[in-house]
Predict the 3D structure of the following.
Amino acid sequence: MPELPGAGMSLPGTALIAAEHVCVRFGADEVLHDISLKVEPGEIVTILGPNGSGKSTLLRALLGIVPVAEGRLLRRAGLRIGYVPQRLTIDRTMPITVRRFLSLPTRVTDRAAADALARVGMAGQEAEQMTTLSGGQLQRVLLARALLGKPQLLMLDEPTSGLDQPGEAAFYRLIEEVRHQTGAAVLMISHDLHVVMAASDRVICLNGHICCEGTPRVVSTAPEYRALFGLGTQGALALYRHEHDHDHDDGHPHHHRPQHEHDHA
């Protein structure tokens, strides 16, 4: 992982990673302007934005892959990050099993590989060829690989892109379960403007700059969100809430925290 300018410097409060007034430029074009955000331990933050809004650029900047023109990026010293890319192109002329893939680039034990696959619902799939996996299975294997390093922060770039609606909802549930089991924070980019994880503690709307930020309930009714994305499928959360809906015995509202409670608007 590239070393960030400011890595290990003083972070706001208990934050794992933070951006302070960050600008990113490609030549004369400013792609990101005055971005300030932070991710706290155990929280799930989802970044929403239309195509070309700078979502993936922001993630790559936080990873230290893209240089910043202004501002600074801060990372807790020794922070362990697991990264799930937007896409993975596999050469079909070069067969590779799931087990072998999990040992790239660093070899892991059979037990560690088996535990990671079990955690993402792919137990016993070590001998499967990567080229034969469905889109949902591939994303689960990528997540398993990211979990091998016992990350404190998971960063996912549009992980449900290309999945059908049931697959998307299932992957969101899996991320919530992983957060509950491991305590890892999650920073995820969503390609679907109208389907936001109900598990998200915060949603950030991005369009070159931060347009609005807050809980999914607050953001889904914000004028900035509606101006960017419209009402679509009755606002944010529609699909995931439908797939994930359940009753609470005590009848009281709950707020999402790392303990895996639920807040359904």
Observations:
- The helical segments are 55-62, 98-102, 110-119, 135-147, 165-182, 216-220, 223-229, 238-244.
- Residues 86-150 form one domain.
